[in-house]
Amino acid sequence: MRIETHALSATAGERTILTDVNLAIEPGAFTGLIGPNGAGKTTLLRLLAGLAEPAAGRVTFDGRTAAQTGRRALARAIAYLPQSGPVHWPLRAEALVLLGRLPHRGALGGIAAADRAAVERALATTDAAHLRDRIVGTLSGGERMRVLLARALATEAPVLLADEPVAALDPGHQLACMALLRDAARRGSGVVAVLHDLTLAARFCDRLILLAGGGVLADGPPERVLTDAHLRASYGIAVHRGEAGGEPFLLPWHALPSPTCQPETP
Ligand SMILES: Nc1ncnc2c1ncn2[C@@H]1O[C@H](COP(=O)(O)OP(=O)(O)OP(=O)(O)O)[C@@H](O)[C@H]1O
């Protein structure tokens, strides 16, 4: 499925969050959505998922609006992984992952073998099979995120929109998660992930969209987006750069002084 935004604007209360955003999310690419806190990444992701209405402009799904597409068809086409937060449902992890199959089941439909198989695949892929009998509310932050990712993967939707999927994960699981999102894109899915780790974004993503100042500051391959000028203008940082095995890395090194954040004088 191709998701497009057309002159999209978003507001929260009286505030304008995003203005005139024109993007296309294509199948077969892993896109990182980056930008400073409050730039509007979650806001944009929810709009791309058809979970919120724009203040102005349109979002289309293979050329049709969310209403024309229908809620059920959208739920089958787009898996949405929300930003991690507490989960209060007294559910076992396996039952939570099974909820990812709901869009495939009729109102009175039972659990088919295909549903069980999708749940098993998702639990194995996210290294969460051993957590299946745990009550979700008792899981650690990283374990919970892997179970929630498994729920999104169990949907087997052609589009996966993930809000900070690696934020709570340890380094090993971060790398595994980024690799599985990239593999999903290689198999034809359209994958968008909100990310704060710029090295993971540079290494694994095909494309980065940098939100700052109420819109898209840069959009393209990582090397064209993660320039010193863009990082200074968006995050107010200077970075150290390097290369390992032919792949780039960058470390946020200095917060640059700004009129509201001056370094202390001795
Ligand atoms: N319901 C709301 N009422 C008021 N302001 C809101 C509301 N929802 C979001 N905002 C504001 O909109 C802006 C964008 O929020 P959003 O969650 O999209 O940012 P983000 O880029 O995902 O940030 P972060 O990196 O911190 O997760 C923020 O300044 C936030 O405070």
From TrEMBL:
Domain ABC transporter: 3-238
Coiled coil feature spans: none
UniProt keyword terms in alphabetical order: ATP-binding, Nucleotide-binding, Plasmid, Transport
CDD domains registered for this protein in UniProt: ABC_Iron-Siderophores_B12_Hemin
GO molecular function: ATP binding; ATP hydrolysis activity
Gene3D superfamilies linked: P-loop containing nucleotide triphosphate hydrolases
Family of this protein: Belongs to the ABC transporter superfamily.
Protein name from the UniProt record: ABC transporter ATP-binding protein
